[in-house]
Amino acid sequence: MNLDAIDQRILYCLQENSQLTNQELAERVALSPSACLRRVRSLEESGVIRGYRAVLDAEKLGFDLEAIVHVSLDQMRPNWHEQFIAGIAPHDEITQASIVTGTSNYILTVRTRNMTSFSQFIEQKLVKIPGVRDLCSNIVMRKIKDRSGMLPLTGRGDG
């Protein structure tokens, strides 16, 4: 889908605050409310906008520990990739999972209440997934930038 500058401004504004009213959004992107609504609906129907959600504060909800876990699998096992994907699916502690290049096969972001619950998750759940060969965990001490789920639109961030 080709996005013009107005579409990009709409997306940027909605990334920053998806609860803007159509009137507020229209004012920010210099469109009439009806034209703005048509564009937003078009972006939704095309799948560019996949949905809207609340961004929760994990620490205020008691999930104080975040870790980045590098996982290497035994690739000699049949269906190793499919088994791992199925194995991590039921675990809500895993908030992100990516297939990566390099020394690991996957990188997981894991969120738990504390170190004890993180250790239990690793020992009782993650290492029991068939084919898991090696884990390396990094505990996040402090986030200095978090734009997860956001894209660099309208030329911002192009350096």
From TrEMBL:
Keywords: DNA-binding, Transcription, Transcription regulation. Residues 3-64 form the HTH asnC-type domain. One of its GO terms (biological process) is response to amino acid. One of its GO terms (molecular function) is sequence-specific DNA binding. GO terms for cellular component: cytosol. It comes from the Bacteria. InterPro entries: ArsR-like_HTH, AsnC-type_HTH_dom, Dimeric_a/b-barrel, Tscrpt_reg_AsnC-like, Tscrpt_reg_AsnC/Lrp_C, Tscrpt_reg_HTH_AsnC-type_CS, WH-like_DNA-bd_sf, WH_DNA-bd_sf. The keyword Transcription regulation applies. This is AsnC family transcriptional regulator. It comes from Ventosimonas gracilis.
